[in-house]
Design brief:
The chain has 14 helices and 15 strands. It is an alpha/beta fold. The chain folds into 2 domains: about 130 residues, Aspartate Aminotransferase, domain 1 (Alpha-Beta Complex), CATH 3.90.1150.10; about 220 residues, Aspartate Aminotransferase, domain 2, CATH 3.40.640. The protein has a 7-stranded mixed sheet with strand order 2-10-9-8-7-3-4, with helices on both faces. Strand 11 and strand 12 form a beta hairpin. The protein starts with 17 loop residues before the first helix and ends with a helix. The mean pLDDT is about 95.
Length: about 400
C-alpha cells in the first residue's frame, strides 16, 4: 500500500524556489516549464515536516550543537542501506556539498595547483576549482551505449608529472547517471593511492539508484583508499531538503580532517542551522519508506520518458540512467549548435532544461532533464520537448 501521493501538484511559484522563480534571470523568460535544477517537485517525508514544526513550536532558536543522536542516525542509515560502517569521529558537518568542495580544495592544495575532474561533470566542480585559483585539468570520459566510462589509462598518464594534487569525483556521476561499479572505483582508487592524489568524492546521489544497480562508497573499498579520501554526503538530494543546507564531510584520515577543520575555523564556520540538523536526523531515521516510494515513482517516470523520446523523437538518443532523477539526452544527431538547441527549447517548446555544454565541452549537443516531478508535469514536458525538436 502506498503512503505518499506524488501525483499531487504543489504550486512552487513565489516560494523562493530557484527552479521555479529564477527562470527570467537564468533563461530570459518566465513562461517556460522548469525542468532544470536538480530538486524534486515532491513534499519531503512527513516525518521531516513534523520534526521541523515541533522544533519551530519550541520557539527558541539559539546557537546549536549537533547531538550524538544525529551522528547515530547517519551511521545507521549508511550501515543498513549501503554496508558502510562509519565512525562519528570521521564527521565534519558543513552547509552543503558545493561548499565542501571549496573547503577541501582550499585545505588540500595551493593556488595554481592542478585539480582533475572526469568530464563532463556537474558544473560547480569547475567553478570551485577556478574560483579558488586552482588549475582545472579534465580527463574526458568515453560515452558508449548511454553510459560514461572513465579512461583510466589516460587519467593515470595525466598524473605522471606529479603536479595533480586532487581529484573531484562524482559518484554516482552527474550528468549521465552512471553508477560506478566497485571494480571501476577500485581501479581508480589504486591509481590515486599510487600517485598520492587526494580524492574528494561527491556522493550526494548515493540513495537515488535504480533497480539492478548498486552504489559503492568510494572510501569503503580499502583502508588505503579511505586514507586519502574525503566523502561528501547529504540527505538533501535524497529527501528533497536542499534548502535546509546540511551535509557532512567524512574522512578516516585524522590529518586530512584536521586540515579541513582548521580551514573551516578560519572561515568562521561554527555549526549547521537548527532546522537543517533537525531535518537530517528525521530523514535518516524515518525516511526509508518515503524514499522507496519516491524512487519507484521516479523510475516509472524515467521509463515513461525514455519510451516517449525513443518513439516520438527518434532523431535523438536517450538511454535510461543507472541512477539520479536526471535524464541525459543526446541531441548530437540533430546537428545543432548549443545556442540553437537552447533557442528551440526556450522559444519553440517553452521548456527550461540544462544545456550539456555547462558540464564540459565534451557534452556539447546534450541536454539534461529533471524528471522528479508529477506525472502530469512530465507528460507536459515531454510534449514540449517534442514540439521543440521536431
Amino acid at each position: 500500500m502506498k503512503t505518499y501521493n506524488f501525483d499531487e501538484h504543489i504550486n512552487r511559484k513565489s516560494t523562493s524556489s530557484v527552479k521555479w522563480d529564477e527562470t527570467v534571470r537564468v533563461f530570459g523568460r518566465g513562461d517556460v516549464l522548469p525542468m532544470w535544477v536538480a530538486d524534486m517537485d515532491f513534499r519531503a517525508p512527513i516525518e521531516v515536516t513534523k520534526a521541523i514544526i515541533e522544533k519551530a513550536n519550541h520557539g527558541i532558536f539559539g546557537y546549536t550543537s549537533i547531538s550524538p543522536s544525529v551522528d547515530e542516525a547517519v551511521k545507521s542509515w549508511f550501515l543498513n542501506r549501503h554496508g558502510w560502517n562509519l565512525n562519528n569521529e570521521w564527521f565534519t558537518y558543513i552547509s552543503g556539498v558545493v561548499p565542501a568542495l571549496s573547503a577541501t580544495i582550499q585545505a588540500f592544495s595551493n593556488p595554481m595547483d592542478k585539480v582533475i575532474v572526469f568530464s563532463p561533470v556537474y558544473y560547480p566542480f569547475y567553478d570551485m576549482i577556478s574560483h579558488n585559483e586552482r588549475t582545472i585539468l579534465t580527463s574526458p570520459m568515453n560515452y558508449k551505449h548511454g553510459r560514461y566510462h572513465m579512461d583510466l589509462e589516460h587519467f593515470e598518464a595525466q598524473l605522471l608529472d606529479g603536479t595533480v594534487k586532487m581529484l573531484l569525483l562524482c559518484n554516482p556521476h552527474n550528468p549521465g547517471g552512471t553508477v560506478w561499479t566497485r571494480e571501476e572505483l577500485r581501479q581508480l582508487g589504486e591509481i590515486c593511492v599510487k600517485h598520492n592524489v587526494v580524492v574528494v568524492a561527491d556522493e550526494i546521489h548515493a540513495d537515488l539508484i535504480f533497480k539492478g544497480h548498486t552504489y559503492t562508497p568510494f572510501a569503503s573499498i580499502s583502508e588505503e583508499i579511505a586514507r586519502q579520501t574525503v566523502t561528501c554526503i547529504a540527505p538533501t538530494k535524497t529527501f528533497n531538503i536542499a534548502g535546509l543546507q546540511a551535509a557532512i564531510m567524512v574522512t578516516s584520515n585524522h590529518t586530512l580532517r584536521e586540515k579541513m577543520e582548521f580551514f573551516m575555523k578560519k572561515q568562521g564556520h561554527f555549526t549547521l542551522n537548527i532546522f537543517g540538523i533537525t531535518a537530517m536526523e528525521a530523514a535518516y531515521r524515518h525516511g526509508e519508506q518515503w524514499l522507496k516510494e519516491v524512487m519507484d515513482y521516479i523510475e516509472e517516470n524515467m521509463d515513461i520518458a525514455v519510451s516517449f523520446i525513443q518513439k516520438e523523437i527518434p532523431e535523438v538518443n536517450v538511454v535510461k540512467p543507472e541512477g539520479t532523477y536526471l535524464l541525459w539526452i543526446d541531441c548530437r544527431k540533430l546537428g545543432l549548435k548549443d545556442e540553437e538547441l537552447t533557442r528551440l527549447l526556450l522559444h519553440k517548446g517553452k521548456l527550461a532544461l540544462d544545456s550539456g555544454k555547462k558540464f564540459g565541452k565534451e557534452a556539447d549537443g546534450f541536454i539534461r532533464m529533471n524528471i522528479a516531478c508529477t506525472r502530469s508535469t512530465l507528460n507536459e514536458g515531454l510534449e514540449r520537448l517534442k514540439l521543440a525538436l521536431l
